[in-house]
Amino acid sequence: MASRLNPYLSFDGTARQAMEFYQEVFGGTLALNTYGDFGQADTPLADKIMHGMLETPSGFTLMAADAHPDMPNTVGTNYSISLSGDDDTELRGYWEKLSADGTVSVPLDKQMWGDVFGMCTDRFGVPWMVNIAAAAQG
């Protein structure tokens, strides 16, 4: 297998809902494992997500977990997830779903560099950037 880089998000108890939401946005196969699945069935963490992974038809891989009480939750503090490409319909569809019930900081619109770009934070506090490349001049 070739090396790859994929985001791993940390949530404070909402990893299941967030990952199910991202599956609705991007499609694909979602695998969720709880702390209970791995020996912590008799704890308050039993139903929380120890590891989740979404693999999409577009080749995206997104991973997440509910932060263990002994580990800091860093969601939304120093990153954004960027989606970019030239498939206007696909990227606008992602934008509509991600920005619904979230906060739009930069509306999806044509920018000075010629692309359509927007920034939003989804309802789970995850920041997203969407860039739709301008059609090549030929």
TrEMBL record:
Signal peptide: none
InterPro entries: Glyas_Bleomycin-R_OHBP_Dase (IPR029068), Glyas_Fos-R_dOase_dom (IPR004360), PhnB-like (IPR028973)
Pfam families, per the entry: Glyoxalase (PF00903)
Stretches assigned to the Glyoxalase/fosfomycin resistance/dioxygenase domain: 5-130
PANTHER family recorded: PROTEIN YJDN, PROTEIN YJDN-RELATED
UniProt-recorded name of the protein: VOC family protein
